[in-house]
Amino acid sequence: MSRPTTKDLARVAGVSRATVDRVLNGREGVKTKTIDKVNAAIKEIGFVRNISAANLSKGKSYRFLFVLPKSGDLFLAEILRHVEEAKTVFAADMVRTDVHHVDENDPHKIAVFLATLSSDDLDGVAIMAPQTPQVRDAIMRLQERGVPALSFISNQSISDMEWVGIDNIAAGETAATLLGRFSQVRLGKILVVSETMQSRDSLERRRGFDWVLNTTFPHLEALPSLETYGSEDRARAIISAALSNNTDIIGAYVLSSEARAPVAVLTEIFVPPHFVALAHERTPFTEEALRKGSLDAVITQDTGHLVRSAIRKLRAKTDMRDTLNSQERIRIEILLSTNL
Fold it and tell me: Per CATH, which fold does 61-166+303-330 belong to?
C-alpha cells in the first residue's frame, strides 16, 4: 500500500490541506478541536510526515552549535575531528554544525556565553561543560528562549533534558571490576586521578568505582581523588606526592576524559611490579600506552557515534519527533592491547 499523504490526512480529518499544514507545522490560528481531529486522523491512517521532503520544499536548514571546553587535549581533538566529519555526513540533510570553545573552569563565563544564544541564530545546542548552578540555570533559560539543548558527554542534572553519553556509573563499576580482577596482590591502595571533580561524569564514575571496589574487592582501598585541572605540572606534583606518601599503591584509575598527562607522569615515575593502570577514552596516546603496557585497559565510547547522535537528537527536537533509542544508546567499550 502507498504511504498516506497530507491529502489523505485532510480527507479523513475533514479539513483542508492548508489546515493540515498549519497543524503539522505548529502554526497559530487553528482551533484546539481541529488540532485534535487532525491528530486523531494521523493515528487512524498511520500518517508519518516526510520531514526531509518538507524541509527541502521550504529550503529549511538546521543550525547546530557544539559548546566544548578549551582544554581536553587529544580527546577533544577526536571530538572536533568528528564534528568536522559531520559537516559532510549530514550535508544532504541541510545540517550545519559549528563549535564554540569555553573555559570549563569558569562557570560564570559559560553562563554569559549561553545567554547570548538565540533561536534566531540557532536550532539547537550540544553542551559539554561541568555541572554547576550557573551553567544549569543558563541552560534552563536557553531552553525557555526556545533553543533546544542537550548535554554532551558531561551530563547536567536538569529534569527532562536529553543527553548523549555513556552510563558513567556503569563505566566506573567496569573500571573497578577490571582493576580488581587484574590486580595480583592481596592488599593495596588505588590512586584515583581526575581533571576536575566538578564534572558530573567524573563524580558518577567515582561513585560506581567505589561501590564495586568496596563491595567486591574490600582488600583494595581507593584513595581520595586527585585533581589535575588539566595541568601536566600539577599532575606531576600531586601524583609524585601521592606515591611518596603511600608506598602500598598498586594501581591507578584515571577517570577523566583526558589521560595523557597523568599516564605520562606515571610512566616517568617508578611504579612497583604488577602495577595496574586504567584510563578512559580512545586517543592516539592511550592506544600507544596500551601497546607499550603503560595502560592495562581503556574504557571508551565511540566519539563519532557521540557526535552523530547529538546531531540526530537535536534535529529530532527541532522537528518535534522522537529518535530511535537503540540507535542513540552509547555503549561502554573496553580496549586492551589485543583488540585495538
Answer: Rossmann fold (3.40.50)
